[in-house]
Write a structure and sequence with these properties.
With 207 residues, the protein is of the alpha/beta class. The protein has helices at 21-24, 30-44, 103-119, 136-145, 161-167, 183-188, 196-206, and strands spanning 3-7, 13-18, 123-126, 152-156, 173-177, 191-195. Strands 2-1-3-6-4-5 form a 6-stranded mixed beta sheet. Helix 2 crosses helix 3 and helix 4 packs across helix 5.
Length: 207
Amino acid sequence: MPTVEVFNMTGQKVSDMQLNENVFGVEINEGLVHQAVVMQLASQRLGTHATKTRGLVRGGGRKPWRQKGTGRARSGSTRSPIWVGGGTIFGPHPRSYAFSMPRKQRRLAIKCALTDKVNSKDFIVLDNLEFAAPKTKDVVKMLSDFSIDNKTLIITADFAENVEKSSRNIPGVKAINSNGLNVYDILNHNKLFITKDAVTRIEEVLA
């Protein structure tokens, strides 16, 4: 079973913790992880782009010229797609880019992402993470104690208002709770801080 060190908020080692190998020690499936990231990013696309068809372009109600006798091709509207200023054929319309994956695949992708962080030693377990008030300098001090100055994801077991408010003004730092755990956030941050309670919660759900 994978074993990691547990630290306090000042960066001092407190104990060791064994992780569930069914969650933090799985075989990494890169293709599945990629699919999960694409799914998450696709669901965030607005898909509000639109073009006008000939029925939506203003004007063109009058027939440009009579049907016969002019020597020109017959035409019924100046808003035909072959006319300048006319409608668009097969143009984009509002749509959703979202697609879904089976729940087992989604969970396995999260396990793969967590396993990668554990293997790369970027998985830092904290015995506790609480702030008396929302203060950005508290998170800055914690990161400084661990000598971390790059993108960091902080995971708590439940919603921690002071932790999230203290983190959101620091570029590259994001705080979420275990219910919002996702593959993209795990991979998009170099370091991962997680509380012992959050580890237990994740193992209960994903094991």
